[in-house]
Amino acid sequence: MARKKSFQRGSLFQRGKRNKVWVGRWWEETIDGEGKSVRVRRSEILGEVAELTSQRQAARLLTQRMQRINGDQYCPQATRKFVDFVRVDWEPVMLPTMKYATQKSYAYFIRVHLIPVLGDVRLRDHNREPIQTMLNAKPATGLAWETVHHLQCALSKILSTAVEWGYIEANPVHMTRLPRRRRTYAKAVLTPVQLRLLVPRLPEPSRALVLLLMLTGLRIGELLALRWRNVDLASGLARVEETVYGGHFDEPQKQAQYAPDSVGTASGCDPFGETQTGAR
């Protein structure tokens, strides 16, 4: 049974000899590594005695600190480390709910980027500054801006779950920003004339694959998952119902239909490669 929450005023005292400071102290509910609620003693330096010249000033500051502890929205903070929460709680429960490709990429981000930097940090100690520093440093290691974005999203999902499950009060990733995107140069794209010269020289099945990619704008995973039942030759439509990644079939990002228009164009695709519902 959960311990009944009691109103606290906290205690106040001075510490130090030369540079005296006011210290506030109180009890705080926390969650230990086994997920149990425990009560621990907390203390915080409120300011120097030279600045807070009266006990009344220091007590007023302590009262402001205690508003969070006594508030109805307060929830116990976790003392367990990030690596324990991810390995024991988050990965077994949350990863299986995601698409296979997302599972693979998130597992990679956790193993290579998040655990080495944030693994030993307690959940309650996560804040914006170290996370922002980590994100800012990633482009210098060779990571593309889009990859850093996906890394930020993965960490945000993990800490959002920690908020939902009552381990922390807020998600610090929401206060971070992505590094400035570096200038990128346009990739070389084959012209329609070059493509018409290329296709006849390709052996099958490469010829058919390249031709369909040209005419429809399908992603390679969507094309490899295409079945005859999804093709309507009379109407010139291909219905995208599956995608394949690493031998695993799954739903595509959005349901769509593709119709060949002309070489180099694709119906149902926006500039960012996200498929749109419906057909043209």
Query: Could you tell me the number of beta strands?
Result: 9
**Rg:** 28 Å
Report mean pLDDT, rounded to a whole number.
79
Give the percentage of residues in beta strands. Answer: 15-25%
Shape: elongated
| Series of secondary-structure elements, N-terminal to C-terminal | EEEHEHHHHHHHEEEEE
Based on secondary structure, the structural category is alpha+beta
Question: Sheet bearing the most strands, described?
Answer: 4 strands, mixed
Q: Give the termini separation.
A: 60 Å
Separate helix tally? 8
> What is the subunit arrangement here?
single chain
Bin the helical content.
25-40%
Which regions contain 5 or more consecutive residues with pLDDT less than 50?
256-280
Task: Give a description of the structure.
The chain is built from 8 helices and 9 strands. It has 280 residues and is an alpha+beta fold. The longest helix has 20 residues, at 145-164. The chain is elongated, with a radius of gyration of 28 Å. Mean pLDDT is 79; it is low at 256-280.
Please name the defining characteristics of this protein.
280 residues; four-stranded mixed β-sheet; 8 helices; 36% helix; elongated
